[in-house]
Amino acid sequence: MVYFSHAIIQQIKAADDEMSVRQIIDSSLQDLQSKRRTGANTRGFILNMIMALKYLRAEGLSARETANVNKAIELLETLRRKEYENLF
Fold first, then answer.
1. Which of 2, 41, 73, 74 stands the most exposed, by the fewest C-beta atoms within 10 Å?
2. Rounded distance, CA 72 to CA 87, Å?
3. Cα dist from 42 to 18, 28, 47, 66, whole Å
4. What's the pLDDT tens digit per position in 28-56?
5. Phi and psi at residue 14, to the nearest 5°
6. How far is it, in rounded angstroms, from Cα 53 to Cα 39?
7. Is pTM, for the whole model, over 0.70?
8. Which contacts of 71-78 are long-range, i.e. CB under 8 A and separated by 24 or more positions?
């Protein structure tokens, strides 16, 4: 999971635009959900990514990388809220 998350973060940082960030997150969640049968935890992944991206903001990022990271956090926060709404 750590390698998977690290690879996703590197892709987010290198994304060309907001749409690319959205596609990276969507494809990573689809990959994770296909592995769900093997015990992958979507909620845990989303929370892990949010925390890792927030920590990453403290590093010296370029303007584009910062924008990509902020957009990814926003998208993941929205997904996190939807996951918790589905609990009840």
1. 2
2. 23
3. 22, 10, 9, 24
4. 988 887 776 555 578 888 999 999 999 99
5. -90, -5
6. 23
7. yes
8. 71/18, 71/21, 71/22, 72/12, 72/21, 72/24, 72/25, 75/21, 75/22, 75/25, 76/25, 76/46, 76/49, 76/50, 77/50
